[in-house]
Records
---
Amino acid sequence: MNVNFWLIQAFNGISYGALLFLVGSGLSLIFGVMRIVNLSHGSYFLLGGYVALTVIWTTGSWVLAIPVAALAIGGVGVVMERAFLRPRPFDPLRQMLLTVGFAFLLQQAALDIGGIHLPVRLRQSVHVGGLDLPLYRIAMVAIALAIGLAFWLAMEKTRIGAWARATVGNGEVARGVASDPLRQVLLTVGFAFLFQQAALDIWTGNNFDVKRPDLLDQSVQVGTLHLEAYRIFMIAMAAVIGLVLWLAMEKTRMGAMVRATVDDAEMARGVGIDTSRISKFIFALGAALAALGGVIGGAFLGIYPGLDFEMLPLAFAVVIIGGMGSLGGAAIGALLVGLADNFGKALFPEVSYFTLYAPMALILAVKPTGLFGRE
């Protein structure tokens, strides 16, 4: 292992960190502003790559694929945030349309998966007096009674049941007592699987490569090192986007409103800031950045089913290390994760996951809010 080995590994780690910054910065901003743990964020990365493939196949232009994918997936993010993740008052028409829509989705899923076959023993009947009672119907009654009893005990004798009764009695007071992270997790995980299935149905399960421009498909000699031009481009792109985001957040009125919302959303609303519009903007920005990462990353990672769930834990590692809602933290976190991942795979391939997540666990133990996170 000479000096060139260490320099090449460092360069590869920095370029991978540049890609992770695009994914992690959007995730960090979404949580910082909206306090939403978006587990479908990796899907934006995957869908961005697939949209880019479609644009390239249609027009032959890789350059055009970048803004089209970012705008398209940013739009998906806006719809998802407006329709599902934004708190709303009681709206029976909306609830009816949503639940009917999900009923049809679930019905189609059930048709695709197949039917349920009864066990042989439950297909029999039991003779009671002069009646022949189907054993399956007796089992249905018994199961309904057991579930009803368990539900009653949960509602009357547990802490969760007390919360539920409080919400029924006064929903506004109950919402003031606690947020609902479980709903966020279930919704975003559900969307992640929906997006993954949609990608399989539209683009099949084959592995694809995003064809990079010929100009970037070369190497650049720096001293005795031969560096991939595309990785240099990735670093430059991440640096430019990071600088633009920093200037927007620190030097513009919109950035001041975003920072105020991150610090204290209630206070921001009190001084007249439209936090709903800020949330929409940040969610769209986060989705667009992830899609941009999918376009750029697809040229050397490839695009394939499951890539979304491979990128998601890395993005969370970036956010956890850097701190929620901090662009600088996302940049430092992405750099550390990229270097740890690359050197771990090069030096200790058998325990590369340990070398990646051990520093994250150490930082959490010492500073739970991350390196640049706020209390």
Note: The chain has one domain: 3-100+183-366.
---
Amino acid sequence: MKAMVLERQGEPLRLQELPDPVPGPGQIRLDVRACAVCRTDLHILDGELAEPKLPLIPGHQIVGTVSALGEMDEDTGGRFRIGQRVGVPWLGWTCGVCRYCRSGRENLCDRARFTGYQIDGGYAEKAVADARFCFPLPAGYPDLQAAPLLCAGLIGYRTLRLATEGDAIPPDLRVERLGFYGFGAAAHILVQVARHQGRKVYAFSRPGDTAAQDFARSLGVDWAGGSDEPPPEPLDAALLFAPAGELVPAALAAVVKGGTVVCGGIHMSDIPSFPYAILWGERMVRSVANLTRRDAEEFLALAPQVPIETQVTPFPLAQANEALAALRGGRVHGAAVLVVE
């Protein structure tokens, strides 16, 4: 098979011819059709996420069809059939026995392994994955449009869910006004979910990035501006999708007392010091770590109900470096997706 391989962090991916992977017990092999490109891939390539498997095939938003099955047990037997289309997300394996796994928080498993990081991913013609962490995909989504749902969508959904936990308190205090800081792949999906839920969305981009602001307006946000601008009204919660630590104090200053700022990325630059006054008033800052299988099941069921429409820019597999460069340079509106033919 052909694959784009990372041999050393800080270097470009190289197109290589490799043996087809063989599924082990509990695994399935996919003929990859598409794999979306994620900012996490950049963090791995740049060395901001340390100690990846090397050499490594990146990619953790995989859409493919099952081409081979390993030996299955009672938990995995019968879940998938040859020719079925499935998706593979970031969370690729958990131990199942630690305190986190046993309490419904498998996303925090200390021994977890991740697709495209410790497990070879989808920048290839074929991929192997643990059947327990693969998911059937909604029928109405072509391969390219389905791929961004698997990380931009899933991590964004968990970020939104944590930001809106205040909905459980009295109705007059519902989390209604949301700020999205960074308007890329995740935000363009989650704005559709938030509007479906009847919430107002205020989009913040890099100062002067009028193209991103226009893109946000085209998706129906209530306001769009630079991250150096205050929103037209105070926010109930803020979701940070940009990996820029300086946005945390800006978002804290924009939320109401009792409001929540949720950092949705796996990596972020250092957060600068800020006055206690903008945290006081029971404001909260929290992070999102990975996802759970429950998140995937809920979100993939919700996507066609909204219905979510993903906007994608396709690249051939061999142009993975160009796709990553476009993402790094802010030249992708929506999601970049590698097409495997």
Note: The radius of gyration is 20 Å.
---
Amino acid sequence: MSGYSTKSGDKRMPEDGAGNASIKHVRKKWRAGVLGATGIVGQRLVSLLADHPWFELTEVAASERSSGKSYAEAARWHLDAPIPAAARNLVVKGLEPSLDCDFVFSALDSSVAGPAEEDFARAGYPVVSNSRNHRMDPDVPLLIPEVNAAHLNAIPLQQKLRGYEDGGFIVTNPNCSTAGLVLVLKPLADAFGLEKIFVVTLQAVSGAGYPGVASMDIHGNVVPFISGEEEKMEAEPQKLLGKWDGARFVDAGLGLSAHCNRVPVLDGHLECVSLSLKKIASLAEVREALRHFEVSAELAALPSAVRHPVVVLDDENRPQPRRDVNAGNGMAAVVGRVRECPLLDVKLTLLSHNLVRGAAGAALLNAELLAARGLFKSRSVAAGEELAEPVSR
């Protein structure tokens, strides 16, 4: 069996010849706010920001019913680890764009995310969004750093077209089930080209938020419908695997069909994928393309990055959510059962953590890349203080 490591040794920043990490050691971190901080994805972001080397959580915001309470009072906490000490006593603010932070994560419900994110961007805040509202906007990057980092070149045009001044913009990450799929498709697209993809998902209940699917509906059952999910899976990969030509996003032109199902698993979306390739490839070549997929030096230097974000297992009964969902600290996609497809060319099974790679971890990695490329700026830095920034390459 091919193993994998979730230890930090596989995902830390590269070192220079003297053994020093390629990040300046400075006194001040970028100050982050989380919109929708009391929800499941918001809680994951709060947890991931604890002790982050580049970011410091300074603001949490949510709906009016939570506004004015301490975060510990407002959040019905769902994670195993306790609420980070730095977040417990933060006062929950409303969604007015007057937060004391340099940028914001958005984990807002789609019913309010659209205009709220626009308000923050207009006020000069970079908005790193997990919400669906702006993913398919023609001037907003839909980003997986390992897949399409070049799409960040759309930000200046977005700012110009929307009148976002003082450094504001919106960047989004994809739907939770799309994230794992496209991460696996990327090395195959690069090596062999893709024509058609057919995917069936088995999606965990945590993807529905809290309280999510009623227990009487999901216990001992499978629900063969998730509202809007198939449409997202069929549209988002086209943008992610497409190109930014300087004026617009050009779709990848794939044939893609998705069936999405909710299953009684807590965390981890399992996907059964069949695909046709433009070039003839053996199963060994497909496995090697996946196994050898390695991120660039720029991405490897990001704190949340995994150098090899696709893990290939050889056991015929893997991947499994219970055993494999935390590969790469939840940031890797795990692939198994690579075999011939009698209808298309190749079929395989993949697994990804829907709340980490598919949500909070994806947004955090996006923010790290934005910071590394100098797209954040301090909104109020006291004299003599510095902000953490990567050493220029």
Note: The chain has 13 helices and 14 strands.
---
Amino acid sequence: MSDQEDGQFELLSQLLSEEPSGKQSCEQILFAKQAEELKSTNRELHGPQESAYIKVSSVVETRPDTGREQRKGAPEVIFGETKDPAQIIVMVQGLLTSTGRVIISRMTPTKVEQVKAAFKEYTVRICRTSRTMVIYHPEYKRRRTRGGHVGVISAGTSDIPVAEEAVVVAEEMGCRVTSIYDVGVAGLHRLIEPLRDLLADKVDVIVVAAGMDGALPSVVTGLVPVPVIGLPTSIGYGIGGKGLAALLSMLQTCAPGLSVVNIDNGVGAGITAALIANRMAQAREH
């Protein structure tokens, strides 16, 4: 076992051990600090008059996993859809201090502008198609890794936003990504040449995003000698709509080698693909 793994298990042991009564835990201290920062951020965003009506609930705690990327090779990602801008800003501040880079998913245009305004001195990457935002500390240096090669395919143009979510995450994990869009089964001839080129370019793993009947991931899996990750999207209507038929179709596949994430889970697909691809890249070096 490596020293790094020993350290992780030692940390876990400390976290699970009983703490002396009356003594504040590290998490409690961190929360108190975050609550004060949240109040300060609210005042900056809304002004002194409105901030009087914005209260920080005692149940709002955040515990960002700052060691996740070091521990398992996948970064912590903030889910922005259900959080207000002030909460996002406080979480970003904490993660930037410890990791130097923060990925935020499912951001509305309004939230993007508010969060961007709070980090004017930082480098910000915005992918409006996927509603994803990445913020880098001025001193952040991307690790020079020989990441693997991830292919991302979408059945239709409506599936691109979810597919792009996977693209951004895989790129942030150091992978080279090749995208092929709008090659669904309604015009399957469009898939053949791009897929042949992708395989010739030594792709390690392929993410296939599809809504409606969700048939494309099974088709691709039956043709390629690499792992495929099915990414059902919520494109569709009527019975089986909103991604349900696509999800069930992928789960019922006859093609071996297809794994499936949940509906619209582009982040999960991107992380899984990047973990596979980066492991393949490591194997090639040895």
Note: Confidence is low (pLDDT under 50) at residues 18-29, 48-59.
